[in-house]
Amino acid sequence: MASVPVANSFQTDRRSVRRWLVDCPASLRTTAGTHHGRLTDLSEKGARFEGPGLPPEGADAMLDWGLNEVFCRIAWRKDGACGVYFEQPIPTYLVEETAHGVEESSMPVAQCGNIPLGQKRARLGTSSTD
């Protein structure tokens, strides 16, 4: 990618495509070693990976799941999970095959434009007058 800060690049693009809920074994390979865990959401531009001892933010990695292998960069890391974004978008059919491999009735986690940037969602059980 261009010399744009990692966090800003990921935040700008993070809702431009649908994210699908998935649950499959995966690994992140870096120059420091291999990190085994689970892929928990996936889109054409990135994914969420959960596991122990994750690589630091900004690290380059290879994300492997099933027969798939994609070059990525760690966008963020927190509480045993990290977000990755792909150098090149992956095909939509690959995302859908992975999502439908989990459960045929799988629904997208978020639709394009579903959550406006800069706005928080109201918490359940609170009203706008609180």
From TrEMBL:
**Molecular functions (GO terms):** cyclic-di-GMP binding
SUPFAM superfamilies in the cross-refs? PilZ domain-like
Q: Which residues form the PilZ domain?
A: 14-91
Query: Pfam families annotated for this entry?
Result: PilZ
Domain of life where this protein originates: Bacteria
Write the signal peptide boundaries.
Answer: none
Designated name of the protein: PilZ domain-containing protein
